[in-house]
Amino acid sequence: MPREFVTTSISEQAAAEFARLVHIMAALRAPDGCPWDREQTHESLRPYLIEETYEVLDSIDRKAYGELKKELGDLLLHIVFHAQLANEEKLFSIADVLRAINEKLIHRHPHVFGDAKVETTDDVNKQWERIKLNEVERPNLLAGVPKHQPALNRAYRVQEKAAAVGFDWPSDAPVWEKLTEEIAELRTELEHGDREKIEREFGDLLFSMVNLGRKLNIHPEEALRTSIEKFTSRFGQIELDLQTEGIPLHEAGLTKMDGLWEKAKLREKGVL
After folding, report:
1. Nearest to 239 by CA among 224, 251, 225, 227
2. pLDDT score of 109
3. Alpha-carbon distance 52 to 169, whole Å?
4. Which of 55, 115, 126, 169 might form a disulfide with 174, Cβ 3.0–4.6 angstroms?
5. What is the pLDDT of residue 128?
């Protein structure tokens, strides 16, 4: 049976605060509102929207949930801001935005709000993609993956969508074989020295690494972000150690820095 929606005190408070935010945004955009807010457009707000999204991710990575509350508010502000601009242009309102996402969630979860039956997360993903294909006319399955998102994330989503309709290896074993093949092809092109072909094979190797991550339930964007933070932390420790020894960074040399790198790794493990 379809699930009933129950209004709670929390949802009532949220509705009141959300309505307040919408009114505040309208006031900021009013003729006697804030000059900066009145000058903004969908295009001018793009970099701020991206920045706020990454600040949310940073708060999650650091488990800084007090900051996460604030960063989510900043992100929500941008959603309301764009909806306000659209409302002024008579395109749609914030109510239309909320109605659209509510209807989408209900429609794409027939196993929760209808009578459909699914057993696993994989079943849910495949059902989701089937429903999406029937909702909007697209030239092809992968057209719905935004081109402007980070390449690793886009590669993951492209592979995920293809897998949802059955275009996927049954296990990670063939992916390992593909990785070996791509490494060999990259080595061959390196020997030939054709820059364009080297770049192409390097891209194929990265794409295969993303596929391996997906099969291992590891998101490449998150994994790479973690590795970058680890590298940044260790290199920062190298700089501190060199400062303590009175050695300029550009004069230390690889051998010295590599030794300090190993020392930084031991510190991470609590050995030093």
Report:
1. 251
2. 93
3. 37
4. 169
5. 81
Domain residue limits, the chain: 9-117, 222-268
Ordered DSSP codes for 55-106 = HHHHHHHTT-HHHHHHHHHHHHHHHHHHHHHHHHTTS--HHHHHHHHHHHHH
Helices 254-268 and 220-245, axial angle in degrees (round to 10): 110
pTM score, whole prediction: 0.65
Query: Tokens 């029937």 map to which residue?
Result: 134
231 by DSSP, 3-state: which?
helix
Structure tokens that stand for 28 in this block: 């900021």
The secondary element (H helix, E strand) that includes residue 207 is helix 195-215
User: What average pLDDT does the segment 30-38 reach?
Assistant: 97
Just give the CATH number of 9-117.
1.10.287.1080
| Nearest CA-CA partner of 141 in 115, 166, 116 | 166
Dist CA 168 CA 172 (whole Å) = 10
Q: HEC states along 138-176?
A: CCCHHHHCCCCCCHHHHHHHHHHHHHHCCCCCCCCHHHH
Count of CB atoms situated within 10 Å of the CB of 121 = 8
Helix (H, G, I), strand (E, B) or coil at 29: helix
Contact 225, 218 (CB under 8 A): no
Helix and strand totals (H; E) in the chain: 12, 0
The type of residue at 253 is: G
Q: What is the Cα Rg of the chain in Å?
A: 25
The two structure tokens encoding residue 270:
């609590």
- Give 124's contacts (C-beta < 8 A, 6+ positions apart): 111, 118
Query: For position 132, what pLDDT does the model report?
Result: 77
Angle at 148 between CA 142 and CA 154, to 5 degrees: 45
